[in-house]
Design brief:
498 residues, Growth Hormone, Chain: A, 69% helix, 18 helices, single chain, mainly alpha
Length: 498
């Protein structure tokens, strides 16, 4: 590192460093407007710093999300492994225990992005992960379907805080056109879990008879133990917010942390966290775009959760595969989805676009859904599953980046993350209901519902694109400042990402 970096205070408290560049109001009140170039890091040093953040942050939250996704979506594998018989899941009981999770999951999400700011990511995320792992273990010992439903309600309470908090945490560390690939990797790790969860479940269910327990019970017990262990490890591996003074960053020096803050602030001007105000927090709800992003995520998760909960059942009932084959054949479509997910993130960051990538992913779904529903050959229908799984799952990470790129202000970002993921949870409720037992074996009404939500996403992206173009042109002419509250002092130059 060059000598210029030695002149920067290294006490780790970014609130005591003076601005190198004055703010819009002409004041200088911290390091938040210092240019990243003032720190004197070489390009190799910058890449090394970001690489360390990637390894500690993206991989850790990705691994924790992997186990989260696996824990909430293993019902399909457990159902065909004997749970449906043991718990007498007749009528709509399976759909009920699938959807009750999302009731509490949705209700308890909004406070999570406020709590994580108060107590810190390490404590918040580690504790809830350990607790829901314990709940998973308990699910292996239930005797009735009502007890399983109760455990699912509790699981929703505990998992509610993870995803919005993780999304919010990721968005605070990276610039707008770095976050696409990171969101892709974060969600890609979760998709790997979905890809191999069926195979893992098939392996675990071979423990049937051990300790006089059926195989489906061991699925919950073993996966719950893995969750608890990962939660414990997560406390030591997770990192706090880059602007936080709560924890010593062992993997970054104080000057490196200040450089992270400076580059993010130069990109979107919102590193400084203003004092929490419930009025300011809720004011974000007046922006219709917040709800458009949320609705896009609702549409996306309706499809992804429908696939997660019912793909083993569709493969077994609709396509006639055996139980073992149905669980194992889940893996290839999710592996294909992983390629689409990372490709979407890479293209979006490289070309600084989001909307067109979302539309492309929707087209994959629009092509794939009719193939699944109406093709005569099982092989062709299975090909349609690839397209739908790839397009729908790729839109999860792309939609995350879409909203993150077009929001400025920490509390607005927190509100947007919470409402965004809350609507994703509501999509989980819809996804739990769209495929009904009475529609067996073709499940075409569910396919129609997935097709409708996908088309709605295309419409919303089109409306947002028109709005972004109009407002960007006004900002170019100096007629308005984008995403700036009247009492904020963000640097000018922010533009919406189409």
């Amino acid at each position: 590192m060059s000598s210029s970096a030695e002149k920067i205070p290294i006490d780790g408290d970014v609130s005591n460093v003076e601005h190198a560049v004055p703010s819009k109001s002409g004041s200088s009140d911290g390091p938040l407007h210092r240019s990243p170039d003032d720190f004197g890091f070489t390009e190799a040093e910058k890449k090394a710093i970001i690489g360390r953040v990637d390894r500690r942050l993206v991989l850790t939250v990705g691994a924790m999300y992997c186990i989260s996704l696996m824990d909430r979506t293993n019902l399909g594998a457990a159902n065909i492994a004997g749970m449906g018989v043991d718990l007498k899941l007749i009528g709509n009981r399976y759909s009920i225990i699938s959807l009750v999770f999302f009731v509490t999951y949705v209700v308890f999400q909004p406070p999570s992005t406020v709590i994580i700011r108060k107590i810190g990511p390490r404590l918040h995320l580690a504790i809830i992960t350990i607790l829901w792992g314990a709940c998973m273990i308990g699910m292996g010992f239930v005797k009735t379907w009502e007890q399983m439903a109760a455990c699912r309600v509790l699981l929703g309470v505990l998992e509610a805080g993870f995803f919005p908090s993780a999304v919010y945490l990721l968005s605070t560390w990276y610039t707008r056109y770095e976050v696409g690939k990171r969101n892709a990797v974060f969600y890609l790790i979760g998709s790997v879990a979905s890809a191999f969860a069926g195979i893992l479940a098939y392996g675990i269910m071979q423990m049937k008879g051990l300790a006089n327990m059926n195989g489906w019970r061991w699925i919950f017990v073993i996966e719950g133990i893995l969750t608890v262990l990962l939660g414990i490890a997560g406390y030591w591996l997770l990192v706090d917010f880059p602007d936080s003074k709560r924890v010593s960053f062992k993997f970054l020096g104080p000057t490196e942390k200040e450089w992270i803050c400076a580059r993010v602030n130069q990109d979107r001007g919102d590193v400084k966290v203003q004092k929490f105000s419930i009025a300011k927090y809720l004011r974000a709800g007046m922006d219709w775009k917040i709800w458009a992003y949320a609705m896009i995520f609702f549409n996306t998760t309706t499809v992804t959760y429908a696939l997660a909960y019912f793909m083993p059942i569709i493969l077994h009932d609709n396509m006639g595969f055996s139980i073992g084959a149905s669980q194992c054949l889940i893996a290839p479509p999710y592996a294909f989805a992983g390629i689409i997910i990372f490709g979407a993130g890479w293209v979006g960051d490289k070309y600084r676009i989001r909307g067109p990538v979302i539309i492309f992913n929707c087209i994959l779904c629009i092509i794939g859904l009719p193939i699944v529903g109406f093709a005569d050959s099982n092989a062709v229908r299975y090909f349609g599953v690839f397209l739908v799984t790839g397009g729908a799952n790729a839109n999860v990470s792309t939609a995350l980046s879409y909203q993150a790129n077009n929001i400025r202000g920490q509390w607005k970002r927190a509100f947007c993350s919470a409402s965004f993921v809350m609507f994703g949870g509501i999509g989980g409720i819809a996804g739990s209901l769209v495929f009904r037992n009475e529609d067996n074996p073709h499940y075409r009404p569910g396919l129609y519902a997935c097709l409708a939500t996908t088309i709605l996403t295309c419409i919303l992206v089109g409306l947002l694109t028109i709005n972004f173009r109009i407002n960007n042109k006004k900002a170019d002419r100096g007629e308005k400042e984008l995403e700036c509250d009247s009492d904020d002092t963000y640097e000018p130059g922010f533009r919406y990402t189409y």
